[in-house]
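Structure tokens please, single chain.
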Amino acid sequence: MNRRELLLGGASAMSFAAAAGFAGAVQAQAAREVVIGVIYPMSGASAQVGIDARHAFETALDIVNNDHALDLIGAKGAGLSALSGAKLRLVFADHQADPQKGRAEAERLITQEKVSAIIGCYQSSVSATVSAVTERYGVPFLCADSSSPSLQRRGMKFFFRPAAQDEMFSAAMFDFFDAQKAKGKKIDTVALFFEDTIFGVDSSNVQRKLATERGYKIAADVKYRTNSPSLTAEVQQLKSADPDVLMPSSYTTDAMLLVKTTAELGYKPKNLVAQASGFSEQVTYDAVGDKLRGAITRASFSLDLAAKRPFITTVNDMFKARSTRDFNDNSSRQFMGLLLLAEAINRAGTTDGAKVRDALAATDIPGTSTIMPWARVRYGADGQNPDASPVLLQYVEGKFVTIFPTDVAIAGAIWPMNG
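Here you go.
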């Protein structure tokens, strides 16, 4: 070998070493963080939901990335142990309650931000669109809080929902009605009041079917346009029907408008049992809580459970320090969703989409390791957790108390709602 060949060989070796060193540095950097995309409404009519969701996810991020002496999944140890202590990093995106904006943000998070998974999206219509994108790219989608049953019926492999869906929630409502009737309470008629996106339509379909099967007459069946500027005509229908139970499926601004309109028209529902959403948001009760005494909502979470699991108080205090409010039906599911996603990524030992998907599919965690009243967390072939036990909460003296099922209730229901 002559001197020129020796020099060229040495240069090549140095270039290779430098490239290898650069690649190693990139891999080391990659190993230090796992990027998760978070798609929520951060502006517009549902902005408060997005703000609370951000606080919930940031609380879960603290739990995963730092060491906490709590009997909660993901709490012990700092970072993801199977990935050399890698920390989670969240990239937030605003879908503005628009499915097409959600689609564009999902594409951006996957192709530009290189996220390992996506969590979202509150509105079921947005979750439907975003999960179709993640399915196409082979990226896991954790559906934290969207509750439309149809989401799990599309034959998707990368879709997972740990919380209950509206068939499960609505069944709990009618189980409660049956129990009240058995105690001699009057419940013969119900009125369905629902917004016109996938959430409201799916919810009403389930409730219509259950009412028929359980022998309850549907006194009114009212569909309205989401974010409607007026609900006067719709409320007049409800007032004329005067059902024993009003069952709204409404997002926050619609829920507030409904309550204000009932007051303006002099209609006092005998009982109100809501499909959560707007009726689980503190902003609703801050605005019209004086008119919602005794209102009941289904839920995934009850702060009452802290009496049995003290760590719930600890994490609720962590969330409250950020948000100035307690966990509710939505924020609790968002918090647990990220912990469950992180646990699966850690168990997979990689950020490879297919392997994380398989780890999610193999999840089997006792409910006692969560902040929820769930029996277990496991997923069926459709990605739905069948053991996500719902509860019913009643708004009494400025706070929610658990009234159903009886094994977790701390108080009996006030029926009718105004006593």
